[in-house]
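pipeline stage [seq->struct] | target=KAD4 kinase | organism=Cepphus grylle | residues=213
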Amino acid sequence: MASKLLRAVVLGPPGSGKGTVCERIARSFGLQHLSSGQFLRESLGGGGGEWPRGCPDVAGLGGGERRGPGAADRQPRGCFPRTLGQAEALDRICELDLVISLNIPFETLKDRLSARWVHPASGRVYNMDFNPPHVQGIDDLTGEPLVQREDDKPDAVAARLRKYKDAAKPVIELYKSRGILHSFSGTETNKIWPYVYTLLSSKIPPVISDEEN
């Protein structure tokens, strides 16, 4: 049987590596990863059209349940606070145990986002600098074409980052005032991850070691 263990949210600007961090947390600690971006893709039917503007750039670990027998049949609810209003709405649903904030230099984010291409149907992300597809412009698994989201194009990136900074500041201050905010700074997810792993290991026992990630 699954037991309720942790409710956490991972915050970060576009391109900060939220998805990667959440996937590693889910794998290492047996938690369910709920991605707002994936929810939107599913609600849009997985179509390959233009990525909707205003798509929440927050991923979280919702429901706080370990995977176990029958886990696939449970659908934990998820809320992802991108604005102060959303954070206050989440308060009415559940009480968070901790919030992880990823602080990545904006110049690094600009480079990451401008080099990012996606497979629209699945949400798989490639970076042409450090995680390119086997064949340029083609998804590794399906052979379908990759696209660059309109808001990942260089002209749109700076505006996205400014918008995130303005919206996220009061959310971050709220969680900081409650003593549940844990901030991690750096330019590489692989270097940030061990500190995130150590933090969570102090809250709940991992199911796999850090070295297995």
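stage status: PASS
auto-comment: The chain has six helices and seven strands. Residues 154-177 form the longest helix (24 residues).
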